[in-house]
Amino acid sequence: MRIHLTNTGAVTVLDAAEFRRLDVLVDPQPPEKLELAIRKIGRREDSDHIRLSPAVLRYLCGRAGEAEWESGFAGMLAYAAKVGWVDEQGDVRVHIECNEIDEVVTEVEFKAAMRALPAGISAVTTGSGDGVAGLIVSSLTSISAEPPLVGFFIDERSSIVPALLANNRFVANVLGEEHKEVLSTFLCEKQGPARFSKGNWRQGLHDQPVLNDALATVECDIVNTQALGTHRMIVGKIRRSVSRQASPMINFNAGMHRLEPLPG
């Protein structure tokens, strides 16, 4: 079993059913970021070891309750206790392994690849009255139908982040070809009511801004957020949705395009 402290901010588990090994793999990252990651899952003992609670391990693995896994996990803990790796609090001493291989593409290569990915355009809104806020995203994606979940990613420095986290809800308004003015206003105006000066807006649940003629609107409660690299993932549970048939606005190669069917 290997706990992976990635340099994206995510904590993952590798080989969750491999009970002959227990360690923590650490990606290259600034010391302060590493210490924060360690505090999320346990506590540092020395330069080469951290202490992890069995309860945290069970949660991270996501296999709790499976009879075969539980048997193997119990055996691993028993061995750790036998050789003196479990302290009085019941926490397990785990060795830190540094990941020396972390080859990634350059930022230029990353952006070039992502420009080749066509994506719909949505105006994400939150708040009410003078506290409204909005942002254009091309990262809206479906996550689950049961329960109904959608998500998107935004830069941690985005002006909408404080409002989203304070309100704990949002509306994703999917834009069509006819919403060029809405797009332009959201991109050009200062954060706040000025961004809603164009478009047919109404108040939805909790008085949040809903674009009346959007291709689709999904009104959501935020159920999960997580920092990943430079961005934050926002996941919402859909409380209300409306949709209609129309031509979407597509972001491709750093430009806006219309969707047309292939001939034949």
Automatic annotation (TrEMBL):
<keyword id="KW-0560">Oxidoreductase</keyword>
<dbReference type="InterPro" id="IPR012349">
    <property type="entry name" value="Split_barrel_FMN-bd"/>
</dbReference>
<dbReference type="InterPro" id="IPR002563">
    <property type="entry name" value="Flavin_Rdtase-like_dom"/>
</dbReference>
<dbReference type="GO" id="GO:0010181">
    <property type="term" value="F:FMN binding"/>
</dbReference>
<dbReference type="GO" id="GO:0042602">
    <property type="term" value="F:riboflavin reductase (NADPH) activity"/>
</dbReference>
<dbReference type="Pfam" id="PF01613">
    <property type="entry name" value="Flavin_Reduct"/>
</dbReference>
<protein>
    <submittedName>
        <fullName>FMN-binding domain-containing flavin reductase-like protein</fullName>
    </submittedName>
</protein>
<feature type="domain" description="Flavin reductase like">
    <location>
        <begin position="114"/>
        <end position="258"/>
    </location>
</feature>
<dbReference type="InterPro" id="IPR050268">
    <property type="entry name" value="NADH-dep_flavin_reductase"/>
</dbReference>
